[in-house]
Amino acid sequence: MHLGVCYYPEQWPQHQWESDARRMAELGISRVRIGEFAWSRMEPEAGRYEWAWLDRAIEVLATHGLKVILGTPTATPPRWLVDLHPEILPVNKDGITLNFGSRRHYDISSEIYREHCARIVTQMVRRYGTHPAVIAWQTDNELACHDTAPSYTEAARRRFGGWLAARYGEVERLNAAWGNVFWSMEYRSFAEIGLPNRTPTDANPSHWLDFRRFMSSEVASFHGLQGELIREHAPGRDLLHNFMGFFTSFDHYEFAESGLDVAAWDSYPLPRTEVLWFDDADKHRWARTGHPDIPAFNHDLYRGVGKGRMWVMEQQVGPVNWAPYNPVPKAGMARLWTWEAFAHGAELVSYFRWRQAPFAQEQMHSGINAPDDKLTAGGHEIAQVARELASFDPTFDPAATAQVTQARVAMLFDYPADWIVQIQRHGADFDYQRLVFEWYSCLREMGVDVDLLPATADLSGYRLVVAPSLPVVPDALVAQIQAGQAHWLFGPRTGSKTADFTIPATLPPGPLQAVLNVRVSQSESLRPSLRPAATFDGVRGEGRSWRDHVEPGPGVDVTAVFDDGVPAVVQAGRVRMTTACFDPALQRAVLERCVRDAGIEVLTLPEGGRLRRLGNLRFALNYGDTAWRVPAPEGARFVLGGRETGPSDVAAWIEMH
Amino acid sequence: MHLGVCYYPEQWPQHQWESDARRMAELGISRVRIGEFAWSRMEPEAGRYEWAWLDRAIEVLATHGLKVILGTPTATPPRWLVDLHPEILPVNKDGITLNFGSRRHYDISSEIYREHCARIVTQMVRRYGTHPAVIAWQTDNELACHDTAPSYTEAARRRFGGWLAARYGEVERLNAAWGNVFWSMEYRSFAEIGLPNRTPTDANPSHWLDFRRFMSSEVASFHGLQGELIREHAPGRDLLHNFMGFFTSFDHYEFAESGLDVAAWDSYPLPRTEVLWFDDADKHRWARTGHPDIPAFNHDLYRGVGKGRMWVMEQQVGPVNWAPYNPVPKAGMARLWTWEAFAHGAELVSYFRWRQAPFAQEQMHSGINAPDDKLTAGGHEIAQVARELASFDPTFDPAATAQVTQARVAMLFDYPADWIVQIQRHGADFDYQRLVFEWYSCLREMGVDVDLLPATADLSGYRLVVAPSLPVVPDALVAQIQAGQAHWLFGPRTGSKTADFTIPATLPPGPLQAVLNVRVSQSESLRPSLRPAATFDGVRGEGRSWRDHVEPGPGVDVTAVFDDGVPAVVQAGRVRMTTACFDPALQRAVLERCVRDAGIEVLTLPEGGRLRRLGNLRFALNYGDTAWRVPAPEGARFVLGGRETGPSDVAAWIEMH
Amino acid sequence: MHLGVCYYPEQWPQHQWESDARRMAELGISRVRIGEFAWSRMEPEAGRYEWAWLDRAIEVLATHGLKVILGTPTATPPRWLVDLHPEILPVNKDGITLNFGSRRHYDISSEIYREHCARIVTQMVRRYGTHPAVIAWQTDNELACHDTAPSYTEAARRRFGGWLAARYGEVERLNAAWGNVFWSMEYRSFAEIGLPNRTPTDANPSHWLDFRRFMSSEVASFHGLQGELIREHAPGRDLLHNFMGFFTSFDHYEFAESGLDVAAWDSYPLPRTEVLWFDDADKHRWARTGHPDIPAFNHDLYRGVGKGRMWVMEQQVGPVNWAPYNPVPKAGMARLWTWEAFAHGAELVSYFRWRQAPFAQEQMHSGINAPDDKLTAGGHEIAQVARELASFDPTFDPAATAQVTQARVAMLFDYPADWIVQIQRHGADFDYQRLVFEWYSCLREMGVDVDLLPATADLSGYRLVVAPSLPVVPDALVAQIQAGQAHWLFGPRTGSKTADFTIPATLPPGPLQAVLNVRVSQSESLRPSLRPAATFDGVRGEGRSWRDHVEPGPGVDVTAVFDDGVPAVVQAGRVRMTTACFDPALQRAVLERCVRDAGIEVLTLPEGGRLRRLGNLRFALNYGDTAWRVPAPEGARFVLGGRETGPSDVAAWIEMH
């Protein structure tokens, strides 16, 4: 449980570095991320490197016992590089070439740019790879941010052709897989294949899906290229990237395979609440706290991406600058978010940023210190967390928390599922991430901990596995269902596609029919006003947005039916499926049934109340407006707070289980 | 009354063709449309033709007694053709060149592309033009779909200049007609004239109108070029095109003059209801049936375009893929839509498509068969229609229905009116088609049959002619008013423009002043909250969206006045005019008065109930939710259904009139 | 108090000019603006000038005693010029080159175009500069209209680089001022600097602000170039430009420094009400009158721009063509708007236009005469105004009105403030002009007259100065506060930025801290649902949209607090600040307190009632729906109307003060 901070020494006069470092250490911070975005200072002109300032910056930090996470500056190629190679600039979906003047102004598929990235990273790792204070390396920054992946350049087109050739071998196989006989889209060679943008009407969804896969691999290989150099020259150091929550333009699980020790992510609960799919009432309700499940969802997701190792690389401290509306967080939230992260297994919570910059694009983004160097309200809360960490109850076993407990419930998160839905939304309001998040939130409101995992994971340790939607069902997953004893719940659109983006020959749910013998004769998307009603376990609710009309085969029970006769929930032994998106009450009824059947306790928490186990600890976090008497057992020993947990407050007790 | 189907043999293994053809015939289908979109199979490389597969496909169909409608594949130029001539790609209004990868990726003004179209069509008609099974030819597919007309290419600009030179002779005449002295827009030669897109503010509306006229003629000549080749090599075969309902980017009446035997159209009631102007309550009300007047309106419109001969080339059978929301149709609708088409004089109802494709862009578009070859719910309904057709009551005289009865009411539909309104909407919510549709719907709700016709038609047989809006009033129309005995009703904006898109010298309604002596001193568009009230025949209602302030001259009666004193309805003998768009109640009051004055019976039908005469038959079609006791005379002989017509059901009886 | 009209002789047959001029004179018109837009008639081909028609047009007008305002035609370069130099076409923010075919199709930064403008203007002024009938010259037309400034051409980029070099001298100074170390945005030379558009995410706000400043100076120098020629060749004539109300893409005060005798503006109250920020209820309420403060606000603003001399160059007479909805004005409004202008010191009210053109883009824009040459409803009202002017009560001293009375309240209007907010809105609904307008409206509803002035003006004569928001506080303003005795009220975001677009070192309100010792520790934007409540002077109200969290220092009183403890109003002696945008009631409470403290009378006017002093006259203007008993003193002598002022009517009396 470390505290960290994002710091940009190049943005401040050198005489200030010393006091900055001292004050960081005094505050309880032990990790400092620096370096990303500083290319123009590392290499002011082509081939002329200047390291003295960075040498000294690291030295000053190290002197105060601070450990450094060094970022590669490849998110911000300098002007001279753009002028030298204008072809590295990105091209957007409409075919417009973007300009220098902000960040991420590069084409991730540019081989020229990749060479320059390899060059600057090589220089960095040769100089600092074995520096004792430099304990970790971050590549680039928030890859794909600002819609920079997919990229629509000629370089992307060329490499896409190569990727397709490698995937399909012969173009006839591609034509068959994509169904290119449709609309005379047949190709005679891989070189003929263009990008799927700017077509008069929809391009072939198979074309899109392969392009999305290709672009995902481009992001991974862009990171991997730097990762290899870092591994080679900085042995023993952690390799990481700082992901953005809710970004799905590349498959993070695939990315992790390209070389990753820790999945770090950037946590901005307030702006994220403002920009996501929530309705206005929810956006208002959580405007100053953020939705209670936004941080948790990403902690659980990225812990899976990092195979257990997760950091928060940038944690919101106060008001930020990038949402349509940017309120001041409620008092206590910087502390609450920090403990929430630790409760979900974060090894490090690092704040963005040490001091608010009074200039440039992020001048309205607050930090631990105001531009006049006074600690901010959030800064004071961090000082409190540091004190709490320093004086953590000695009866609590820190070693136990180092090992994150595996939850009893796994939820499958599938990046290609999101691509598939984006490519063929079919119903304008169908949102894969929203559906996943709503199921997740439903489980968290019952006090249930959840691990988010890919459909390819080993799920043998779980009592219940839920998949809110899984368009492509891997055969291996069916084998896991058959082999294990877990309960399973699948949502709508499951098994609706093959890996080629076609409809399975036996119709959906395709391979899942081996364990749930139903045939989806037709599917429909529902306008918001169309809400067929159904009852499950006595709870009346509505289907929304999507409905699969299933015909149950032998051995399948229909356990809920819509008023018009279409099955709502079907079941074959341990495997259930819901045929539509449900309203929260009906969704909860089904999930609650599954949780109980799996032998897991169901609690009823107050609005905004959340629980989380970590080792032998259980945390209670109160995002609500009223005090909460937390469900600790009689006589539980509290290591943080007490039984009455006020608004924006947190408690933790040792649980004997 | 034939049933047909759209079929794509190239998309399925050849061994399946035989069973497909057999099952079609068994189902009662007698017509099969094939071939459109298959260019890459007909000519896999430049100049290398492959016809064997198509020979065989036609043969298999013919063996089962099926007749073939052969489509030209020009909606989908193959990749090799695009690579050979990239300049055939279309350019959109923003100046962006579109890509290969879907369909309609061609510039309709490209002379190079027209040559290639002529070439492939020539090859086809030489081979199949006199094949006994091939009874009809369709050119291209849904011309102008996906906003591909107008086209904004350099080729379009060049040809537009030529078109203008032919129209005006001398550029000074064009300058005068367009009023180019305004804003120094004067041209010194036709070659100087560009396209009207991408101007800093509105281009000259006269410039736009001529461009729209030109583009309309481009669409017609593109079809005509193919039509001529078909006429030459396929003597005696029907020449057709499959239009899309509610597409007005070209003048269908002008198109028909370029060579057309049958006006075929593609009927998708559900997605059309979702994307048209209806408010949310109406979209919900008709989400699973489609608005009751959408099919009828187009049947009546295209019957006029085809001078009496009308087919439904593609009829929705089940859920489709292209609206924001795509629900499953209510049980019975595939049958109901079919009978509605026949009731309006369709010679053929052809379904889209034989079997849902599990791949490519339209994989979520259902058909008669699911991808696993099982008949869909809609497929079963079609089987029922086929049985009903086969056993039609022998006392009914089929010959009588072959001749569509001329209605007593004509409604004028004017494509240039829609262009004029689009070019100069003036009020953001003024929609010409919506206004026409609302008047049409109003008449249909009274049980009145309507023929839709151009303003240039011979209208001498009608008792009542209504024109919801007719900005340019032809002199010949005024002559028809004066010569005949019909009643006439004109709506707002009538006579507001000359053919050059200028205001008539005597102000609106221009030439109509000869029969209705009023002067529109000023016109206004009304924000939705501004709704002046008026009363007609005791019915209180509101004006909306637009109002012409008319000053009545001698001989003109003001039969309704808005509360602020502006005339709402004016009348001179048999000619009436409404000065604003009215709400449904007030609109009905005025139309009902006109219908009664014309000696036509007015009925009050239940919500969703519709009637239609065909020869000596009268059909009752129930789009509503409750059973309907249809207004058949005592002792009427029912040839379909009975006096009680349930939801989504249909009845027909022999009417002695 | 002159009446004028906009006239386009080139658009009408010459035989009509004589009667037009005669009827103008008869109507009471004495000024006629002509010439702008007529380039293609002045110079039909490169270098071939045709002046005979214009000679004659001026002659005809002069013969009838009419004085001419001659416009330069540079808003409409002819086709031949565009073909000769296609590089003069503008490029929009997305990088798309715009086309010929409307107006303003030129790049304001094009040096080639500037040469051609100088050439045509030189020709004009040499010919007509000393013509006795030509009393004034207008440059171009509504500069920057249709989003034509900023311009995003290569020429703009080149000149911007030069402008930056002149401003900063050395690129290092620019890098430091902009904070370009952030995101490696550092430049090595001015030539490297591009335009700030089309970046993947926000460009540096300092980059944008300098670009906006540069573009503002481009607009000014474009005018100045013509102005110099006019000054040289047309000595003694008024030099003017016709501005559009609410256009802020250039700094009008800076513009005036480039040479301006009169600030003329174009007044279209109805469409402006429809397109501005008003909610639907207000748009409906004022749909036929225009919001009562729209004309007044601009009169007061442009009177300041013109240093006391203000004209209405184009006054709406009837319905126009360019808003989403274009209703007919309420009877009386053309007259009311005219008197409102005179009451605010307009020397001339000139109507757009003499006769509605039946052709081209503005054919739906009404005028004094309909296209059939009959006087319109608005035309009749103008005739009434002319009669009233002619018979103005002789006891009224016209000389007194020639001198506009300085108001007691000054409001600061700051063009860069609007740029700053646009560049970094931070809260999606924060609108600088809206905030200013709401404060202005609040004052006008109390019967208070207001002068709008720049922050650099000499404010010594005012009792109260209000600045709804002033992000950059000039040091000289602080000196004025300290030196004078006036009361001051500042709104949110005041002092939030330095001139370089950075946060002041001591945090906001920066320099204002010298007179109001507070520190804005953090600022927040508030979604519409977040509305913290506060009470001031017993009035309960809400903060909206924005809130500065201020920490009051010694000597500062907190006179209102939000319920959550954040100060709402702070005060130090004569200086007050509101920390948020307030709802109208709370805003009025604070302004009313300031007005009373400044010793100014506060009235309560009925809805739509407005007062205005001019010399020894006081006008009452009734935009409301009911008669108003105006607050004239007992025995006041009315020179217009009487004590009961009906809807859309006006009264004026001699006030002894």
TrEMBL record, chains A, B, C:
Membership in a protein family: Belongs to the glycosyl hydrolase 42 family.
Catalytic activity: Hydrolysis of terminal non-reducing beta-D-galactose residues in beta-D-galactosides
GO cellular component, one term: beta-galactosidase complex
Keyword annotations from UniProtKB, A to Z: Glycosidase, Hydrolase, Metal-binding, Zinc
Top class in the EC scheme: hydrolase
Alphabetical list of Pfam families matching this protein: Glyco_hydro_42, Glyco_hydro_42M
Domain Glycoside hydrolase family 42 N-terminal, residue spans: 6-391
Active site (catalytic residues): E142, E314
Beta-galactosidase trimerisation domain boundaries: 407-600
Gene3D superfamilies reported in the protein's UniProt record: 3.40.50.880, Glycosidases, Golgi alpha-mannosidase II
One Gene Ontology term of the molecular function aspect: beta-galactosidase activity
One of the protein's GO biological processes: carbohydrate metabolic process
UniProt name for this protein: Beta-galactosidase
Residues that, per the record, bind substrate: R103, N141, W322
EC code: 3.2.1.23
